[in-house]
Amino acid sequence: MAHQAVYQAMVEQAVAALKADVENIKAKRGTQFKITDAKPYVDAVNAMTAVEGELPEVIALHIDSVNAHYEILKALTETVRPEDDPFVEHYQTPPILEILYEEQPDFRASVEKFIAAIAENRALIGREAARIYGGLYGPTAVVDFTLSPGSTANVVNRILQGLDIPKDHKLIILAAKSFGMNTSYGLGAAFKAAVEAGKTLDEALDEEIATLQHIYDKPTEAQTELMLKHNLGGHGGHSSFDTAEYQKRYKERMRPTVLAALAKGVHPANIVSVPAYCVGDVAHHNSQSMFNFAQDPIVMAILEAHARVLENTLRSGLEKGFANEYAPLSLTVGAAAAAMAYEFVLDYMPITSVIDLLVNRFHNMVAMNPGRDSAAELHNVDMMMSIWRGWHILKPKPLGKGAEIDGVKVDLSPIDGHEVLGDIQRYSYPPCAITQRAGTMFKFADFPCLLTSEPMTATMLTHIVALHPETPIAPFRFDKDWGATEFRYVNIGYGVKGFGADPVVGYDQWKAAL
């Protein structure tokens, strides 16, 4: 059971991480991004400490990973182009997996059985790849941190269920494709690319299986190969830095930290996860794409106001008292969701209509661009999930929660009182300024990372792992009810007749989670 010092550390350190990002972005927006621009976030991370009851070796996984990431990038390049920045948080799990392969031969043997099982599950992989390609599940998060339909983790879980290897090894493999990001690959990408290149479905499935096997067999090599051909925006493969050299150096830097964590009994499923989800604020959330994005004054205003909503609400939670170590995380996610929904409500936008629009747009995208990037709609899914949850928090009791989470009132006043958001008419045709917030929130549907808020949740998750190092944190084992499912019944069993569907939770896997 956690205590007040833990809650204080979770809140203060999470708030510090987000504030470092937001204040830095405000100061640097519109400029040319340099790796050193992310130093304020690194400084905030370096102030993290373990408190009584927490395992310092877990906190070290977080701190050492961020520092290794920052220092290696700084040595390899001055900047990262926008097309390469989304992938910077995918270079950590592959080297750490390879450390585990080298240090634990029995785990490597289990991975080889899993690799063989991928080919043996040809029908499963073909069916799931085809369903994703055709948009059967609706909008999906292919790299989801739960076991939702259409996610890579969903299929990994299905393959592992019947595999005769130790359960702990199954948990590592599963975690490595959720919070742990074993390469940038998302299920179905090779299949889609092959079909759209004119190959047969059988040939496409061969390529899909070979790619899935490769990312587990030789993770760092696979990641480098994937990056050399990503071609985002038609600008060619990764060119910002030598990805193979990055992973080599990262592996060397992190080996002592990984070994120290193993020696203290940290579950390897946490070791493949913690170092990955905390590095994105260096060259992704603080990045050229973000410095471009935040030039919009309303974008910047929303970033500022929502950060204050989170800080104020969490401090109220501290004053009231948290029930356990999961409560600050729940309050963070809920308050962030409420603030996001509130922006749409202020512009008179029905939340269900926003979700319906994004779902319909997804199906149009499938028809118009069948070879779309596997991750194209994943942040749209984050937005739908957040505003759906937020709307139910905002609705008055008993229909909703009356803008309260576990008895803590969500403080939305920073939105109402912000100098830009409070006078939104000054940023449009003044009499008709009824779509400015909603229009900007649609931009955030592609880039919601600091609203949801990733640096805060990453910090809090690390503290939770430090309290329970022996228990895998990832993937989350629940139905996250992500909004789109109100329009696409894929996570309920009623009437769902597709092969592999559960009679209660449909195509979801949370009930069958390892």
Task: Give a written overview of the molecule.
The chain is an all-alpha fold. It has a domain at 55-286 and 489-496. The chain contains 22 helices and two strands. The protein has a two-stranded antiparallel sheet with strand order 1-2. β1 and β2 form a beta hairpin.
Proportion of residues in extended strands: under 5%
Poorly predicted sequence stretches spanning 5 or more consecutive residues: none
Shape annotation? globular
Oligomeric assembly: single chain
Number of strands: 2
Order of helices and strands: HHHHHHHHHHHHHHHHHHHEEHHH
State the helicity in percent bands: 55-70%
Mean pLDDT over the full residue set: 95
* Largest sheet, strands/sense/barrel: 2 strands, antiparallel
Total helical segments: 22
Strands of the largest sheet, in order across it? Answer: 1-2
Radius of gyration: 22 Å
Q: Helix- and strand-based class?
A: mainly alpha
Termini, distance in Å? 24 Å
Question: Helix and strand layout, with pairings?
Answer:
Elements: H1 4-28, H2 39-46, H3 56-76, H4 93-103, H5 105-120, H6 122-134, H7 152-161, H8 167-175, H9 189-196, H10 201-217, H11 219-228, H12 243-263, H13 268-271, H14 274-277, H15 288-293, H16 297-320, H17 327-346, H18 351-368, H19 378-394, E1 404-405, E2 408-409, H20 413-416, H21 436-444, H22 454-467
Antiparallel strand pairs: 1-2
Helix pairs in contact: 1-2, 1-16, 1-22, 2-3, 3-12, 3-22, 4-5, 4-12, 5-10, 7-8, 9-10, 10-11, 11-12, 16-17, 17-19, 17-22, 18-19
